[in-house]
Every structure is written in structure tokens, then in C-alpha cells.
């Protein structure tokens, strides 16, 4: 690397590869675990079998300084421990040689100990132990144990139940208490009251040597409900891990140039306004800055939504997150990372979030009706028995039996089971869903707002007039184009991928002129590919937007390039239209580019040249009109709109903030997955309603039995288990993607992967 | 009838042992990579990590 920025850069076809992180960045992503050993987490999304584990662990173990490599197949991540001897091992390079793409995982996120899941699993294990042992002891009571034997058994049950209920039931009591403190109710309020009442009554009866005790009902209730909670949590955790494992787009630091012209790689936080930075071709701009020296093309697509790259030279302002494509630039930072364009987006997002009404889960809405109904019934049966019989104990027993038997065991499982199944189906189709409420909200949408660049389109250029171009000129142009990573050059190269083999020509010397184009010399002739003004020296009409291939200044071919639609875009629009959903495009790109895409897809409503704040305003306006909007977008500029929308979706290629805050993230290129997600959410909504009907139907049958005083602990245990099983089985009916010759795993597997330490 | 007095403690102790074993294995990271564990068994040169 030299201290001056060259105006022309000679690049090879290697420039296509993603830049590997430098040693300094690698070190920055590591954390010390003592004894001079550092641990680095690397996310490798393409790990898929035992062979991969074996290959990677053996391959990396050979590297200098590597102490230990451990691949985690479930989270598709590997932990590398290496001895600090100055330079870190080139693990990413070694992985590339083995055929895997790896990227560094943020150490702060990797190191965060997440105690929630183990805590839930411990509570679940304790509840399982308690409920099974109490059940086995209760069997002897049901079988006819009497007198002191029954009493001893009841006392043993009580001594197991008390610690288990306190330990495992905490989750429910805490949540119920939080809701009550804010004057609300949720599902956990009737659950907590039911558990407490059942235990208190059973203890009283045991003390007085009465026949019935409900310890088994209380503990198995906690056990069943914890299963639902844990699955729900595992589902969200799994998505979080998967989304975090995607390549981080924003850089962790930048190469700085100090006053003596020395280079130093610094973390993002250490960059101050006024710091001079070197940004080489292929790097993203880390902070807002102004170009001091150099010429290049900058891809603004993730920031403003513009599809065509813009040439820049000294004096131009660059926002954080833009991508430098062709030349090296020396820039001066104008803001610290926290004040950059990104930070402004985050402020807009926070504003959008605070303006949004809190969504109430369907289960909580159900419990708002359910809890008063149950408590009223229980009270009425107490009063009824007092009037007709006058025995306080008998009346209390019946009232509590009513509480226990109606305790929303099936209701507590009805929603999470379906949502866990739906999340699993979505996961199989490579769609990540953030939480259960996202699916409930997706089920309600009536409007979809799309961003254009990177969402409806792939953000990749494509040659559209390929038929008009002389094949020989095309293959030569393609070969020349293979030396640049400019999107237009890539598109021309992609139009004739085997060009080099067919043309027989070879360019001896290729130079890239950032902002202008490429020049190559072959058999004494000078070939140029790039802007018309650069490539053409003849007198033909010059159209500024076209890309020209020329020989010694004579035009050989001109290429018309346009952004490529994502596969499945047409069929998505068609299916959404059939489902009666209104569609709209809001883009930051220029009017003609947006109109072209809108016309191709047949979406009449579109707005072009919109600023991030404008997108947010549009979503807010639609929301005010009572519409439920699904926002699909990828850019930094979409992030506030994603936040404000009723529900949001982003492709895996989206900017980090947008992706981390979207409700759904889809990893496939095809847009059809958007409709698949909608369909699964709709099916899940249907199953949830069915499950509610089943749970309510069960109560209709069981309630009279309880009110009449026939709900013995035995009847309660059978009824509760049965209703739970029916609800779970119903949830398992949820179908995923239609089978397309792919083998699906049989049976239901607990998605326990990614359990934190 | 007197069997009762040692059979119940035995059954509870066995259950408790199972519970403790599960908690131990959870803490020990045995559930961190379930997919990987099922694949690793196919490669017999896999050495336990130090």
C-alpha cells in the first residue's frame, strides 16, 4: 500500500471476491480468555453436515497458533482459540480454501451470556420431575389407598409440590404480578390464582385428612404450560441466532492515516471527526465523511435506494454504509460513528416505535375475556353451593375445582404450539420470524409497501439489449469487464460468462479509471469500456447514460443496463392481488427507474425520490387511514419505515439495522417467500382459532361436571391431559412449503439447538 | 406394608438423580449442538476437546 492514492488501479478478476477481513479486524473481533489465548467466533452459514465439521476442524487445526477449533453445527458457527503470537491465523482464508465462506462474529454479541433459556429448561426439568413423581404417588391414591396411607402419600406429594411450584412457577407469578401492577390482566393471572388456590386447598385437605388433593393437577399444569413457554422462547432464540449469524455489512473499523502518513487499523468508536481514512475498493464507508483525494464510484443503494452508482471525486460527501466500488479514496471523517447517517436512522426508528400502539397478543386478548368469566363462574358455584348446602368446605372445594379444571392449560398451549410449528415451517423455507406476535400481525395485513432497490430488485444490473450486440464484441467486452467490480461491468461479464474461453483474445494490460471505465490493450489496439464520453472519440451522438465498448475510440457496442427484478416478483404481485391486498412502491430512486419497475409488475401506486423521513410519513399516513401495512424493505433508509409498519420483512441482504429490527427476514433470493410467509401466518391464525374453539368446547363439557361437584382429582388430571394433547396434535397439522422433490425430516423435532451456556 | 417406607424414598431418589443428571448435563453444555453431536459420532477420530 502506498501513501498516495493512485488514480488508476490495476485490478484482477480476484476483485470479485469479497474482501477478507484484515488481521487487525480479526484481532478486533476476538476476546481474550486468559493465558495469552484469544477466542474468535466465526459464522459459517454453509456448514451442513458432519463432513463439514470434520473438514473444517482438521483444516483449521493445522494453522499456526491455533489451539482448538470447535464447530457448532446447529448455530453454524465455529469457535477458534488461538495463541497470541503477534499475527492471528488466517482462518477466513483457510476456510475459503476449504470451500466455505466465513465471516467474523461480533465478539460482544457472542460473549453475552444469555441465561434465560437455561433458566426455563431448569424450571421445566424440576416441574417434570415433580409432576411425574406426584402423579405416580397419586395413582396409588386413585387405586384406593385409605386412611393413614393416603395421608402419608398426600404429605409426600405436598412436600414435593411446594418447592417445585415455587421454583418452576416463578415465571408465571412474576408475569402475572407485572400485569396486575399496571392494572391489566394476562393469561398468567388466572394461571397463578389457579395454582395457588389448588395448592392451598389441597394442603388444607391433607391437614384435615380429607379424601381429595390436587397436587398432581397443580404441578402438571405448571409442567404443560412451561413446555409451551419454552418452545416459544426457543423459537425466538433460534431466529435471533440465525439473523445474528448473517454477515455484518457495516465495518468494525477502518484503516486510518495519521499525521506521519502511517497506517493504523482502528475500531469504529475511536474514529473522530477530522481523522483521515483510507477506503479501498470493495470496502464500505464506516462513518460520514468527505472525500479528500481519489476518484471512485460509490454504490448508494443501501443508503438512498439509488440503483445506479454515482462517480465521486474530492469534496464529495459520503454517508456511512455506502460501498466504494472502483478506486481507493482518502477521506476525512466528518462525524463520529454515533452521529453518522446510521445514528440518524436509529433516532427516526425510535421515534417510529414510540408512536406505534402496543400490539396485544391474541392469547392476552383472549384471557381478558376468559379470566373474569372463569373467576365469576367459580364465585357463582361457591355461592350456589352455600345456598343449597351451606357447607363452606364443600363449596370451596367445588369453586376451586372449577378454577383448576378451567385453568387455561389447553389455552396456554393453543397459541404457542401453533406458532412454534409455523416458525419451524418458515425456518425450513429459510424465513426467520422474530416472534409469535409477528405472525399474528402478518395475518391481519391489507396493504403491502415495497421498497424498490434491493427488495423488488436484486440490486444487480443486467444487460437488457443483449440481442442487439455483436457476439464477438460482447465476448471481448465481457472479458474486459471481468477486471472490475463495478456493477455495470459485472453485468456485462455475467452476460457472457465464458467469454475468455471463446473470444481467444487476451488483454495484456488492463487499467481501471474510477468513475470512467476500463481500458485494455490487445494486439496493439486500445479497447475501452465505460461512459460514452470516456470510450468514444468518434462523432456519434453521445448518450450520457449508456455504457459503450470501443476500439481505438470507435464504438463497437453500446449496452443498456437496468436493475434486475428479484425472481418470483411477478408471481408474488399476482398472488397478493388475488388475495385482495393493495400494493405500493416507495423508493428513494429516480422517477424513471421506479416507473419502469412499477410498470413491469403492474403496480399503479408508486412514489419516487423519497427521503427516509418521507417513507416513515407515508407509512404513518396509511396507518392513520386504518390500514394494516406490511413493509418490505432492505435499505438503511427503509429502517424507520420498517419500524413504523404494522409488520415488516427484510431480505438477508438488507442493512444491519433494518434486518435486526424486521419481524421477518428471508434468506432466499425469491420474493415468493413473502407470500409463503403470509400463507403460513394465515394458516397458523386459522389453527389458533380452531384451538381456541377446542379449548372452549372442553370447558363447556368440563365446567358442568366441576360445578356439580364431580371433578375429583382423577377426573381433572384426565381432562387436562386430554385437552392439551388434542390442542398439540391440532397444531402439528400445519403444513409448510409445498413439497418440491425435497426430502423433509419426518416427525417433530424439538428445536433445542443453540442453547446458550 | 413396611416395604412402602423404603420403596417410596428409593423411587424419589432415582427420580431426583435423573433430575440432577439433567441439570448437570445442561450446565455442562451437552445441549449446545444437538445436530453436531449426531453427526460427530460417525467420525471416529474425533478427539474430546481439552
TrEMBL record, chain A:
A Gene Ontology biological process in which this protein takes part is:
metal ion transport
> Which residue windows are transmembrane per the record?
123-145, 151-168, 189-207, 213-231, 369-388, 394-415, 692-708, 714-732
| Record keyword Cell wall biogenesis/degradation present | no
SUPFAM superfamilies the record matches: Calcium ATPase, transduction domain A, Calcium ATPase, transmembrane domain M, HAD-like, HMA, heavy metal-associated domain
Task: Alphabetically list the UniProt keywords.
Answer: ATP-binding, Cell membrane, Membrane, Metal-binding, Nucleotide-binding, Translocase, Transmembrane, Transmembrane helix
Gene3D superfamilies, per the entry: 3.30.70.100, Calcium-transporting ATPase, cytoplasmic domain N, Calcium-transporting ATPase, cytoplasmic transduction domain A, HAD superfamily/HAD-like
Which InterPro entries has this protein been placed in?
Answer: ATPase_P-typ_cyto_dom_N, ATPase_P-typ_P_site, ATPase_P-typ_TM_dom_sf, ATPase_P-typ_transduc_dom_A_sf, ATPase_P-type_domA, HAD-like_sf, HAD_sf, Heavy-metal-associated_CS
Report which superkingdom the organism of origin falls in. Answer: Bacteria
Which Pfam families has this protein been placed in? Answer: E1-E2_ATPase (PF00122), HMA (PF00403), Hydrolase (PF00702)
- In this chain the HMA domain maps to 38-103
Protein localization: Cell membrane; Membrane
* GO MF, one example: ATP binding
One term under GO cellular component = plasma membrane
Keyword check for Membrane: yes
UniProt similarity note? Belongs to the cation transport ATPase (P-type) (TC 3.A.3) family. Type IB subfamily.
Provide the protein name: Cu2+-exporting ATPase
The species is: Phyllobacterium trifolii
From TrEMBL, chain B:
Give the Pfam families listed for this entry: FixS
Which residue ranges run through the membrane?
6-26
Is Transit peptide tagged as a keyword? no
Keywords carried by this UniProt record: Membrane, Transmembrane, Transmembrane helix
Q: What are the boundaries of the signal sequence?
A: none
Q: In the UniProt record, does the keyword Membrane occur?
A: yes
Question: Which domain of life does the protein's organism represent?
Answer: Bacteria
In terms of NCBIfam families, this protein maps to: ccoS
Protein name in the entry: Cbb3-type cytochrome oxidase maturation protein
Q: What is the lineage of its organism?
A: Bacteria, Pseudomonadati, Pseudomonadota, Alphaproteobacteria, Hyphomicrobiales
Amino acid at each position: 500500500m502506498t501513501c498516495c492514492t493512485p488514480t488508476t488501479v490495476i485490478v484482477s478478476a480476484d476483485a470479485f471476491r469479497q474482501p477478507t477481513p484484515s488481521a487487525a479486524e480479526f484481532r478486533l473481533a476476538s476476546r481474550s480468555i486468559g493465558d495469552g489465548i484469544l477466542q474468535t467466533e466465526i459464522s459459517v452459514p454453509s456448514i451442513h453436515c458432519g463432513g463439514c465439521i470434520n473438514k473444517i476442524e482438521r483444516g483449521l487445526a493445522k494453522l499456526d497458533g491455533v489451539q482448538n477449533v470447535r464447530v457448532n453445527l446447529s448455530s453454524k458457527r465455529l469457535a477458534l482459540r488461538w495463541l497470541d503470537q503477534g499475527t492471528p491465523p488466517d482462518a477466513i482464508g483457510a476456510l475459503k480454501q476449504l470451500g466455505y465462506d466465513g465471516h467474523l462474529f461480533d465478539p460482544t454479541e457472542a460473549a453475552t451470556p444469555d441465561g434465560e433459556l437455561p433458566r426455563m429448561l431448569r424450571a421445566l426439568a424440576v416441574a417434570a420431575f415433580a409432576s411425574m413423581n406426584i402423579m405416580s404417588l397419586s395413582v396409588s391414591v386413585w387405586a384406593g389407598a385409605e386412611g393413614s396411607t393416603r395421608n402419608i402419600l398426600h404429605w409426600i406429594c405436598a412436600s414435593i409440590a411446594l418447592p417445585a411450584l415455587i421454583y418452576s412457577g416463578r415465571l408465571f407469578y412474576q408475569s402475572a404480578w407485572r400485569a396486575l401492577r399496571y392494572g391489566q390482566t394476562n393469561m398468567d393471572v388466572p394461571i397463578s390464582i389457579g395454582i395457588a388456590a389448588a395448592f392451598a386447598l389441597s394442603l388444607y385437605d391433607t391437614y384435615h385428612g380429607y379424601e381429595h388433593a390436587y397436587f398432581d393437577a397443580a404441578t402438571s399444569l405448571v409442567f404443560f404450560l412451561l413446555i409451551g413457554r419454552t418452545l416459544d422462547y426457543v423459537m425466538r432464540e433460534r431466529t435471533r441466532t440465525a439473523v445474528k449469524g448473517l454477515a455484518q455489512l457495516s465495518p468494525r473499523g477502518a484503516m486510518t492515516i495519521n499525521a506521519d502518513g502511517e497506517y493504523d487499523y482502528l475500531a469504529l468508536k475511536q474514529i473522530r471527526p477530522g481523522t483521515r481514512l483510507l477506503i479501498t475498493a470493495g470496502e464500505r464507508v464506516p462513518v460520514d465523511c468527505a472525500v479528500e483525494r481519489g476518484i471512485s464510484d460509490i454504490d448508494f443503494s443501501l443508503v438512498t435506494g439509488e440503483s445506479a452508482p454515482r462517480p465521486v471525486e474530492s469534496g464529495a460527501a459520503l454517508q456511512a454504509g455506502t460501498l466504494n466500488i472502483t478506486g481507493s479514496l482518502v477521506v476525512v471523517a466528518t462525524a463520529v460513528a454515533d452521529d453518522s447517517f446510521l445514528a440518524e436512522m436509529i433516532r427516526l426508528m425510535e421515534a417510529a416505535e414510540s408512536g406505534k400502539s402496543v400490539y396485544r397478543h391474541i392469547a392476552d386478548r383472549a384471557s381478558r375475556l376468559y379470566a373474569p368469566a372463569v373467576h365469576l363462574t367459580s364465585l357463582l358455584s361457591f355461592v350456589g353451593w352455600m345456598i343449597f348446602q351451606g357447607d363452606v368446605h364443600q363449596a370451596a372445594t367445588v369453586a376451586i375445582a372449577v378454577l383448576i379444571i378451567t385453568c387455561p392449560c389447553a389455552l396456554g398451549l393453543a397459541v404457542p404450539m401453533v406458532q412454534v410449528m409455523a416458525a419451524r415451517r418458515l425456518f425450513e423455507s429459510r424465513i426467520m420470524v422474530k416472534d409469535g406476535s409477528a405472525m399474528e400481525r402478518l395475518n391481519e395485513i391489507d396493504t403491502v409497501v415495497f421498497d424498490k432497490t434491493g427488495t423488488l430488485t436484486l440490486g444487480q444490473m443486467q444487460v437488457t439489449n443483449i440481442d442487439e450486440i455483436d457476439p464477438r464484441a460482447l465476448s471481448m467486452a465481457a472479458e474486459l469487464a471481468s477486471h472490475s467490480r463495478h456493477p455495470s461491468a459485472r453485468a456485462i461479464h455475467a452476460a457472457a460468462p465464458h467469454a475468455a474461453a471463446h473470444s481467444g483474445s487476451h488483454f495484456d494490460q488492463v487499467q481501471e479509471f474510477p468513475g470512467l471505465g476500463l481500458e485494455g490493450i490487445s494486439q496493439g489496439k486500445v479497447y475501452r469500456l465505460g461512459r460514452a464520453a470516456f470510450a468514444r472519440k468518434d462523432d456519434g451522438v453521445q448518450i450520457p447514460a449508456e455504457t459503450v465498448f470501443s476500439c481505438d475510440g470507435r464504438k463497437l457496442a453500446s449496452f443498456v443496463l437496468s436493475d434486475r427484478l428479484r425472481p418470483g416478483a411477478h408471481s408474488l404481485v399476482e398472488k397478493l392481488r388475488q388475495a385482495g391486498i393493495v400494493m405500493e412502491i416507495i423508493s428513494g430512486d429516480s422517477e424513471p427507474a421506479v416507473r419502469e419497475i412499477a410498470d413491469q409488475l403492474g403496480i399503479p401506486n408508486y412514489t419516487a425520490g423519497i427521503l427516509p423521513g418521507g417513507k416513515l410519513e407515508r407509512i404513518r399516513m396509511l396507518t392513520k387511514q386504518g390500514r394494516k401495512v406490511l413493509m418490505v424493505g432492505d435499505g438503511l433508509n427503509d429502517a424507520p419505515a420498517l419500524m413504523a409498519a404494522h409488520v415488516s420483512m427484510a431480505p438477508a441482504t438488507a442493512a444491519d439495522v433494518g434486518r435486526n429490527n424486521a419481524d421477518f427476514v428471508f434468506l432466499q433470493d425469491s420474493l415468493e417467500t413473502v407470500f409463503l410467509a403470509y400463507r403460513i401466518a394465515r394458516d397458523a391464525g386459522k389453527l389458533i382459532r380452531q384451538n381456541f374453539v377446542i379449548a372452549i368446547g372442553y370447558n363447556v363439557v368440563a365446567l358442568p361436571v366441576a360445578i356439580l361437584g364431580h371433578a375429583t382429582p382423577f377426573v381433572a388430571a384426565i381432562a387436562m391431559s386430554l385437552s392439551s394433547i388434542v390442542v398439540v396434535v391440532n397444531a402439528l397439522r400445519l403444513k409448510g412449503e409445498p413439497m418440491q422433490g425435497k426430502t423433509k425430516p419426518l416427525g417433530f423435532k424439538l428445536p433445542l439447538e443453540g442453547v446458550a451456556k | 406394608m413396611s416395604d412402602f417406607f423404603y420403596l417410596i424414598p428409593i423411587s424419589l431418589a432415582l427420580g431426583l438423580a435423573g433430575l440432577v443428571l439433567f441439570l448437570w448435563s445442561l450446565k455442562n453444555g451437552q445441549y449446545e449442538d444437538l445436530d453436531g453431536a449426531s453427526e460427530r459420532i460417525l467420525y471416529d477420530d474425533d478427539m474430546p476437546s481439552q
